[in-house]
Amino acid sequence: DAKSKQDEPSGIIRLGMGSSKAWLSLLSFLEFTGDTVFAILRFLSGRAGFRARDFWLSVQECGAGALPIVALISFLIGMILAFVGNVQLAAFGASLYVADLVGIAMVREMGVMMTAIIMSGRTGAAFAAHIGSMNANQEIDALKTFGFNPFDFLVLPRLFALLLMMPLLTIYANVIGILGGMLVASTVDIPPQLFLTEMLTIVDLTQASLGVIKSFFFGAVIAIAGCYHGMNSGSSSAAVGESTTRAVVTSITAIIILDSAFAAIFTVLDI
CB neighbours (10 Å) of residue 172? Predict the structure, then answer.
């Protein structure tokens, strides 16, 4: 036992090994992102393509299939914002400004953020599991053997589907969340028409577009993270499960980092 304890690396060595592994993983992810950009350029120049059926299947999975859960979460988030806001604002006799709070919070942050987190756990994980299963069954090697580029046939349709559907889902989430806040406001004697009138005084087109702009980047991160961990998973069923978990963790972490960067940029630009 004493010998085995002596053979174990110290805490500093384990920290160094972990840091080195994290750095190599980051470089690998950035390399995969670069390969994805080149695949997009090949597609735009007409030198790459994929089956339209795969694209529309991904659109259905990312779009229509996600509507119920996005609606439920967004509606509840809108209600929670209105409840909490009313408790604080009522003390100052300013309950009407709940409309401003719900509107700004949904279109700038909560709508796109909750949609992205939902899609990370739902669609990003599905991408990783699907491609990871193909990798375990050597279907990706078969594609390479027949001269097909896996990036073109597996990554691009999923990436384009999320880039198309994330802005639409974000707008949908914003509307549903505002309706949830409006429902709560109606219980504290704020009529829906007054709620909308007050909200539109603060939520203009610029404010409403901020979350939609962020949704493009969040969608790209979710698709790239899911496809990256799927294509780099092992050849066993356990490895597929681990790659699915890593895909969700990676995408959510990247989304929060990106959102922080956008918050800093919008603050500097005074938006």
Answer: 19
DSSP character string of 138-151: THHHHHHHTT--HI
Other Cβ atoms closer than 10 A to 108: 22
Please give the Cα distance from 229 to 243 (Å, whole number).
Answer: 5
Q: How far apart are CA 208 and CA 204, in angstroms?
A: 6
DSSP 245: H
Angle at 196 between CA 256 and CA 171, to 5 degrees: 35
Is the pLDDT at 3 greater than 70, yes or no? no
- From the list 94, 76, 108, the residue with the least C-alpha distance to 181 is 76
Rounded CA-CA distance 214/271 in Å is 14
Q: Which of 14-18, 72-76, 162-166, 167-171 has the lowest mean pLDDT?
A: 14-18
Q: CB pairs under 8 A, 24+ apart, for 259-262?
A: 259/109, 259/113, 259/214, 262/210, 262/214, 262/217
